[in-house]
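Hi X.,

You mentioned you wanted examples for the new student's onboarding notes, showing what a folding record looks like when two proteins sit in one file. Here is a clean example. The first protein comes first, with its sequence line followed by its structure tokens.
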Amino acid sequence: MFEKLKLTEDRFEEISEKLSSPDIISDNELYAKLMKEYKSLTPIVEKYREYTAAVNDRDGAKELLEESGSDKEMKELARAELEDAEERIAEISEELKILLIPRDPNDDKNVIIEIRGGAGGDEASLFANSLFRMYSMYAESRRWKIDILNANPTELGGFKEISFSIEGEGAYSRLKYESGVHRVQRVPETESQGRIHTSTVTVAVLPEADEVELEINPADIKTDVFRASGAGGQHINKTESAVRLTHIPTGLVVECQDERSQYKNKDKAMKILRSRLLDKLTEEQNDKIASDRRSQVGTGSRSERIRTYNFPEGRVTDHRIGLTIYRLEHILNGNMDEIIDALATADQAAKLSAQGDE
């Protein structure tokens, strides 16, 4: 570990020198790339330097203890310094292990979230709207920008499906744990007997793909235009503004009809398609990793039931980590940090454990 840390410090110093070079400063793309790496290495190097300072303090305290002879006061002082240094070394070592966990390369990216009603008909569509509201309120609390890319609303005020982007620092790092099946248990307003119904909604969280990292051959895209359909909206069924993109090699299909402009719909559809293709490539790469080496918490199969929202009991249960919170309305109002923090901590612990097994 410490050999790796020394190499990291050397790389940090190398980048620091390069960033002051006029040639690098004049190259915007290279400067931005190096600055991003410099920023990512800074907390590791700072913590490593704290560690080396603590080791020096420990060695100094040992020398003082050996040289103190029969001086009781000096020995006491040296022992106290030695104990303090050893405590700091142990504490910083654990912090360094966490900092050295390989970062998800997508963590700093914006996201595209796709929510679809599953089993449960109208009730599932209504809950899809509830989840959209929850994520929107969470994004607003973090000052992230939301943009609806495509929506298929129902007459009752739900969504058969809705896709939207969230732009903001660390959006993917916080929301990546939301992919999977969300289950709701409640009494629908239309239920006269007061029976609890169970419905499901699927959520997919995709890191937004940049054009430079994923090139799509225009010849591989089939474009169809058609009249938009759905609940409400003056432009519905009036013009052929809706767009359907089919990626021929993979068979992926994306529709977008939220905008009045065909061109805007095509841009938004391409944004979704690019992110789905990146997600597909990432999933294929992850599938090559042996199952005993996987350590992510719930960022895998979308068919996995990850969470239950039980209205009669006012509780939310995340099945991946066995967490139950009896503040359902609080969470549905966008106060998600307690769940996300717990998932991130469990993910971190799993990765630390996987590192120890290697």
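Then the second protein repeats the pattern, sequence line and then tokens:
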Amino acid sequence: MTILIIAVAGWIALFAVWINSASQGGRQQQAIATLTTERDDVAAQLQEREATEGALVDIAAQLATAQQDLAAVSASRDNLNAELAKREGELATATEDLETRRADAAAIEQQLVDARAETDVLAAQQQELTTQIETANQQFADVGARLEQVRNQEAEATARAAQLTEEAATATSTLADTQAQLQSAREELAAVQNQAAEATAQSETAGADVLTLQQQVADLDARREQLAKDVEGYQAQRDELQPQVEELAASVTARGDELSALEARISQATSAADSAAWIGRFTASDGGAASGLSLTLGEDDRFTLSSDDGRIVEGSYTLSDTELVMSEATGSVGNASFPMTCPISQTGGAFLVGEAEGCVLAGLQFDRAP
């Protein structure tokens, strides 16, 4: 009987030991599963952090490259603007010189017209003097003919005086008249000769003036032709510079477009870098009741707010430089109302939540979790 009791007790003790061992094995498996889950979460967070750091490095490299491109494009744009200003100055100078040459050409044209008009007047005066000279020569020839006729009459009268004594008084009177006419004819001849001499002098002077005016006209024609060539040269230079100015203007416009596109890329890269800087897990660091509170901001614009006691709130968010807006929240919301707008100020890798109505995170500072 004693042996039986001892055997039963042994079996009962063995059964108790087996039950205790099975319970400890279950707890160990549960602990292992919990540790495995935590390890996977930590590995995922580590991979996410490495990916975020890699993206930040790439964005920083892209930003540096974009800034270098921006500096190069800005320098190129400045050079093009300087070249454009230089070309525009040359074009303005050429245009001004062209206008001056045109004004000189117009003045010379007017001088040429005036000189030709004066030449015409002098030619008319020369023609008139030539006519007067011809008239005086004709008068001189007439006076000479009359003088010859008078001389013939005097010879005839002298011959007749020897033969006709009775007509001496009449002949003498006739001779006196004839001599008076001869003296008058001589005076007229002298006057005509003086007029012919004056007309000849005027004709020579007019001829010299005409030659001088003709030389001036020839000089003015040559100067006009030279000015016309200069005008054509300036016009050709202007026509040559105009495409360069237009090309420079188009290049400046293209560079401006490239600069705008590059600035947009830099802005996008900066925005992406800023956004990436605020993606991750942050923990409250006030050391009070909120100690252990963590806020996770995801790339998918989703947030997770969790505490040490296991309460979790999830939803969507938008983040700017001045405020954090959380909406569509689910989970342990409690008395909080959403959407919730909280003003923030960013300092380094942390941000401080300011006071605002309905913001349950007011006064907390969130630091990036390691």
